[in-house]
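cache lookup: miss for this entity combination. No prior model stored, computing from scratch. Input as submitted by user K.M.:
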Amino acid sequence: MIIPLIVVLVFSFFSIIATYLAVVEKDLLNSAIFMALQGVCYTLIYYVLLAPDVSLAYIPVSSGLLPILLLVVLRKLERFEP
Amino acid sequence: MRTVNEAASLMITVTIMTIVMNISIAVYGVFTRPSLTKKIISLIMCTDSINIFAVIIGFRISVRYPSPPILPEPPDLDDLQVFVSRSVDPIPQALLVTAIVIGLATSVFLMGLSILYYKHFGTTDMRVFSEEDADETSE
Amino acid sequence: MRGKDLIIAFSLASFTIALGLILYLEGLGPLPARDLRFLATSILKNIFNPWEANLTTYSLNAVSAVIWDYRALDTILETAVLFAAITGVTALFREFFNVPNTNLQSLSVVVRASTKVVLPLIVLVGTSLAIHGHLSPGGGFQGGAVLAVAPALLITVFSLRIVYDLKLKAEFLLGIRFSALLLIILLSLTPPILASISGVKGYVLQNMGKADSPLSMPAWFLNTPLAGSIFFFNVLETVAVVAGLTLCILLVSVEWGKIKNFLTRDENRE
């Protein structure tokens, strides 16, 4: 049970980097991509912690629907943060 | 066996601390960044980070090889005993699917609202309003 | 950074350190619990138990059984929350229900060709997840969300013109969503209606027969366990989620000029 927990630890450290970069970025398109990257890390954590239903529900929401909606919204609003 | 258990427990605790740090970075992003779209992105990241706690609560540390809460084929009574002694808690996972749907519903509605907000006010900079209120109250 | 930002950052950092210390010293109890709780034990023992026919559901997936049988009222109210959000978006964009013809361009040839390859695979995976929800990981909402990525990709890659070419109307999608929700409510009210016709007792959202009520949904389908109302709920929820999310993406991606005209016309009227 040690090696799966090491994988969880490595991916949660990776998700801290993705969250920090998403918050301080000025170009909001890059910020949306970092949000999708954080979603991928969390999907892996859900899978290793033995919750397949939750990860199947989280993949299309975090990496498919919310970034597409954000890109459509960014096209109509401003792309760079003031 | 005891040292393996304690090492696993320590790793879960460090994972919990990293998730708490994720939550605080996302809350910092909601408070301090001036753009409306950035606030929506940080709010989505904050709700997703809180959902990880539920799966960690339902996990099982003291079993050597735990299994997910799914039966592979119709079981007998002995298979049921083995299944109950090894499986992970299914109730937090069911509550989590509901939480993901509600987060999606809130985010979709917020994005639709922000488009009409921008067309009416012409800007997504939220600092404009707080400075105007400060000038009016001081005069 | 300004002074206010510094105060916020410092208070959030101290909150993080305090919460981490409390969890490390086991102030909230040992966090992954040492033994399984009693409620989880009794649910796991009873999801496929032909020897205890009052409490079983004949489904091999514990999470689907908890979502649609043991806590079915929570799931119906969650569907109502998603319905409220979709109604809100529809009410905000109600002027743009008739999508006019546009001359927007679609993206380049490479993107279009690869999307044409990927789209049937997405539809196949989504349908398989929806139908197999009671036998393997999957279910109603999982299949519906995967299936809803296909129209989102279609509108993004081929531009809003494809909605006009396929003659897809917003009222049609709204009608599908309403009918699926109505069928879910009718399915949950079927046992009491049948019970009052035939003179026995029946409960709302009942799946299998209980001690004082002999009505039950079909439990076997030619050799594989079909968990009664769980299968029908999964299929209806998939249809409802696909229609609702497609409608949201369609309404949000209407062009700029028409929304500006709509708002200035309102201000001239006042």
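stored under new cache key. Chain B touches chain C through 54 residues (CB under 8 Å).
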